[in-house]
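B., you asked whether I could sanity-check this one before it goes into the benchmark set. Here's the sequence:
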Amino acid sequence: MLGVFHGHRDEFNTNDYWGEIMYTFRVWRFRSVFGPFFVFALMVIAGASQAQQHYPIEDKAEWSTGKYIQQHMIDVGDLPGHKVRILEVQRIYNDKSQFAVSGVKIKEALARGYSDYTQGKGKAWGYGVWLLEDGNKIYSEWAGATSSEPTPTGSIEGIFNGVTWLRGGTGKYSAIRGTMTDANAFNNDPKNGYN
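And here's what the prediction gave me:
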């Protein structure tokens, strides 16, 4: 059988010349048929990993102002403080912003999504659009979890940890793909500059 080796070397009688030849032939056939396939597969995998380019992306709170365009919350009714919500958030980036992809600055970001929180803790997920200075757009999907607590001043302080997947875009960004990890600390006290 081509490419299948049955048994071990010690099953063949080493005094039997024909057994030795068959053993050698079977191993050689296995290598000759599958060897090139494995080499080709390794070349494809190595080429794909070298083709990926990594771009650091940084976004700082002082580079933008944000606001809820709309949000709608519904009490679930099973636990105190359990709410589901749909939301739309807009962030406008200022001249200090270094938030860019391949050197092209992002001027606006829109996030539309859902959250399922109980007493300020829970999951959130949704979709995003980055509007770039050159007129192109980048589309994303995001998901994560938030943990927050009220502070003595009455504001809410917490952290969101999640993942954002870049899912394509327009123009030269149509094939963009990528994964980013998100860690966002927040305090919604207006005295601290939260918007």
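One thing to flag: The radius of gyration is 28 Å. Otherwise nothing jumped out at me.
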